[in-house]
What we know:
It is a single chain. The protein is mainly alpha-helical and about 100 residues long. The chain starts with a helix and ends in a 27-residue tail after the last helix. The chain has helices spanning about 1-35, 45-70. The longest helix is centred in the N-terminal third of the chain and has 33 residues, at about 1-35.
Amino acid sequence: MHVYQRVRGVFAKNCLFKLQLFMKLDNRVRDLDNKPEQLDNKPVNFDNKSGELDNRTAELDNKTEELDNKAENPDNKHSSKSKTPFSPHPTRRKGGLFV
């Protein structure tokens, strides 16, 4: 019976807390409905950053084209290396013993 009362008490406190939180939020919404001038109705000006964004977009486009060209033309410094797969522990054998 003692455990049941404890659980019931915790559940009641949790419900009471949620109800108080809901009431606070409800009061805030009602306040904003009554006073709409408190809302931030400032117009957003996007013209200031549009040039910066265009420049950044152009830079990213150029980098993308460079990467595409490198991917299409694999004539780079590392092409002369052997095509063996990379091993994270080149000094270890398959059984885990050192060479």
